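Translate structure to sequence.
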């Protein structure tokens, strides 16, 4: 699937187009992989917007980038054999050839969705952003925005494991019900309700100790005014500003509110935690095994649905991690 054009305003499925070509022969030290599934994350929209400096400048006319899980079909590296299942930059394509160093073996019997979701980049982002940057303590109040999304639904559940009281913010009543009834959040609020600010205040009677910010924008603006002394704001992403060519200004109250309440506001990028991924995955797997962490996915079928899946993700139409199944 190619980037046909860069979005001007909101992303549309027409910004992508299918193209076919010969399957690349793996070169020296390369491994050729048949893609089984890819994941799509909101941060990829920042990449297309050009606002994610780490992703480089966006360009039309190339294969859309992205992470996937695939099966090795040919290997010119001693560390990989045909049949191995690997995670890496498959991009949005059926077959991908890349140097062995860019692939990482995963459990061949497991569901690719698990390796792309809770044990993939977004799960690790939730885990390290919350536990390392936010560091919630038992009894503290944690608020997370885009709470029913891929990162957010894991943040809330990990915060519960840590003994916090958890308030989720999502974009529909259905999602709010899922957060409370199925995923153990204490309270969930619909950001689109007219009385959102009143509900937000009522849901945080002891104010906020950790705000995990996936959205920026108005929700960050509200959270800033509810922070406790020595609270922590974890700046994970700015999804309210991605799907537009005219991102809004930052919120009021910075730096005054940070100074008065001694609030720490800190951004992070998950790549910085690479040397701790194995330990993070092991702890999350143990919580999955004990039933304390329930990963959710929204599934789409076929590479041709990837553009539409991306549009739905940004529009709030998905719950959990967005996965596109590409092959059995
Ligand atoms: N720092 C890092 O290393 C890192 C790594 C990965 C991801 N991230 C960030 O993590 C965040 C979540 O990513 P994700 O892949 O898990 O996406 P996601 O939460 O699965 O999907 C994005 C969600 O954002 C909400 N949203 C959309 N427009 C919004 C708006 N104008 N205001 C408020 N909410 C809006 C929608 O849910 P509702 O309609 O339900 O609100 C949408 O479903 C993103 O900001 C991403 O950039 C950061």
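Result:
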């Amino acid at each position: 699937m190619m980037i046909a054009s860069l979005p001007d305003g909101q992303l549309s499925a027409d910004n992508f187009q299918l193209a076919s070509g010969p399957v690349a022969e793996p070169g020296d030290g390369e491994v050729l992989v048949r893609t089984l599934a890819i994941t799509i994350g909101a941060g990829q929209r920042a990449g297309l917007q050009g606002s994610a400096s780490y992703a480089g400048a966006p360009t039309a006319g190339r294969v859309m980038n992205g992470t996937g899980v695939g099966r090795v079909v040919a290997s010119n590296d001693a560390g990989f054999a045909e049949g191995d299942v690997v995670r890496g930059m498959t991009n949005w394509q059926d077959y991908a050839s890349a140097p062995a160093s860019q692939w990482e073996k995963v459990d061949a019997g497991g569901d690719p969705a698990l390796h792309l979701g809770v044990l993939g980049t977004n799960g690790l982002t939730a885990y390290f952003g919350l536990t390392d940057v936010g560091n919630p303590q038992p009894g503290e109040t944690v608020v997370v925005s885009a709470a029913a999304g891929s990162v957010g639904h894991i943040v809330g559940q990990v915060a519960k494991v840590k003994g916090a009281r958890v308030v989720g913010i999502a974009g529909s009543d259905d999602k709010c019900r899922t957060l409370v009834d199925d995923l153990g959040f204490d309270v969930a609020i619909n950001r689109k309700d007219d009385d959102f600010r009143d509900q937000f205040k009522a849901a945080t009677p002891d104010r906020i100790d950790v705000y995990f910010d996936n959205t920026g924008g108005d929700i960050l603006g509200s959270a800033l005014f509810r922070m406790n002394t020595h609270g922590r704001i974890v700046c994970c992403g700015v999804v309210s500003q991605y799907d537009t060519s005219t991102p809004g200004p930052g919120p009021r109250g910075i730096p005054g509110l940070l100074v008065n309440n001694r609030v720490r506001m800190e951004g992070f990028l998950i790549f910085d935690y690479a040397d701790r991924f194995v330990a993070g995955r092991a702890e999350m797997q143990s919580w999955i095994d004990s039933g304390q962490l329930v990963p959710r996915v929204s599934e789409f079928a076929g590479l041709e649905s990837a553009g539409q899946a991306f549009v739905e993700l940004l529009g709030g139409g998905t719950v959990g991690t967005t996965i596109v199944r590409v092959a059995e």
